[in-house]
Amino acid sequence: MEVSLWFWAIFLVVITVMLALDLGVFNRTPHAVTAREAAIWSAVWVSLSLLFNLGIYFYAGSEPALQFLTGYLVEKSLAVDNVFVFVLIFTSFAVPPVYQHRVLFWGILGALVLRAGLILSGSYLVENFHWVLYIFGAFLLFTGIKLFRERNDHDEDMNESLGVRILRRVMPVTDEYRGSSFLLREGGKWIATPLFVVMAVVVVTDIVFAVDSIPAIFAITQDPFVVLTSNVFAVLGLRAMYFLLADVIRRFHYLRHGLSVILVFIGVKMLLIDIYKIPIVASLGVIVAIFAVAIFASVRRDEGPAPPVVLSSSDDERAPDGPPVEPRRRTPVSSPDAE
After folding, report:
1. DSSP 177
2. Distance separating alpha carbons of residues 327 and 315, to the nearest angstrom
3. 89-115 as b/e, with b when 16 or more CB fall inside 10 Å?
4. Neighbouring C-alpha atoms within 13 Å toward the C-beta of 120
5. Please, where are the H alpha helices in the chain?
6. Do 65 and 52 meet the contact criterion of CB atoms below 8 Å apart?
7. Bigger pLDDT: 42 or 212?
8. SS in 3 state form for 287-298?
């Protein structure tokens, strides 16, 4: 896909304006993001992505547009796993809800810059060394199988990880949060706050996930423009996705299994690239179907059978043809005023 400087300029202007509105206007004052606000921003980012996809269709035709849409859905679905880890990070560091949006904004923005470097490097390798695609395919196949066998829950304490301990030794860190500040100047030197540590963990975490997701999109297309733009739109919508799904993400028990199957499918697609090229429409259908089945299965499991109704009983009540029924003990409910 031949891309003119004008198209690159439009893309950069749209992203810059949206980020400025996000942080400088709508979220200038730190506050806890509500589910309604997260839903609105999710709709905004998805709408912008689809409009940009429509622009690619009119500019370059249906094939690049399908590649963008498929790559966007791959990155969006794989980004769901980030939400699990973000929940763990904010819980481990006890980040107040009012500062979580600020951490994700700067953390993901920093990760995007590093992702761009990975994408450009990957594009160079794929263009000059075709056999790299087989390495990517084998890596995705292995990662998908490994992810399928992992547990859904994460029990490790991110606050005690090796990287965090090293960071705390390299630079002084305050013991408590200092508002929304990442860095402070005290005694003539700069010191970090725990919020800076959390942001660094978010950046590193996103790059770790990019090691899986970026090779996956090269199975869809090797066009650097499509790879980069689909990544950017998917990742920028990740903050709103987090606030929308953080409270319910653990109820989707089979999402990680669905993501693992998607990785295996893309790995196989990449390994077969010189034998049989799976059509882009078929790939799009398979990815959507896998994701839909994982969500449907999770919802059905979460519903489950209705619990049996337990009726209260008195001391003289008896079960039919049985011994006396023990009175049901009521657990007192403590009120907030009682503490």
Report:
1. -
2. 6
3. bbebbebeeebbbbbbbbbbbbbbeeb
4. 6
5. 5-21, 35-60, 62-92, 97-128, 132-149, 162-170, 194-218, 224-236, 238-245, 255-271, 280-303
6. no
7. 42
8. HHHHHHHHHHHH
What φ, ψ does residue 148 adopt, rounded to 5°?
A: -65, -35
Phi, psi angle pair for 27, to nearest 5°? -125, 35
Task: Give residue 30's pLDDT band: very low, low, confident or very high (50, 70, 90).
Answer: confident
Structure tokens at 13: 């202007």
In degrees and rounded to multiples of 5, residue 61 shows phi and psi of 110, 180
CA nearest to 106, candidates 26, 36, 14, 182: 182
Residues 50-81: tens digit of each pLDDT? 999 998 898 888 888 999 999 898 888 888 77
CB 140 within 8 A of CB 215: yes
Q: What is the pTM of this model?
A: 0.75
Q: How far does Cα 217 stand from its chain's mean position?
A: 16
What is the dihedral sign for C-alpha 165, 169, 170, 176? positive
Q: Using alpha carbons, select from 185, 192, 145, 147 the residue that is nearest to residue 169.
A: 192
Judging by DSSP bridges, how do beta strands 189-192 and 183-186 pair with one another?
Answer: antiparallel
Q: What is the largest CA-CA distance in the chain?
A: 86
Tens digit of each residue's pLDDT (9 = 90 or more) over 276-325 = 888 888 888 888 898 888 888 887 776 655 445 444 444 444 444 444 44
Q: How far apart are CA 247 and CA 253, in angstroms?
A: 13
How many CB atoms are closer than 10 A to CB 263? 27
The neighbouring-strand residues paired with 186 are: 189
Contact 52, 233 (CB under 8 A): yes
User: What's the CA gap between 309 and 317, in Å, rounded?
Assistant: 17
CA angle 242, 270, 72 (to 5 degrees): 30
Give the Cα separation of 42 and 39 in Å (integer).
Answer: 5
Q: Which amino acid is at 3?
A: V
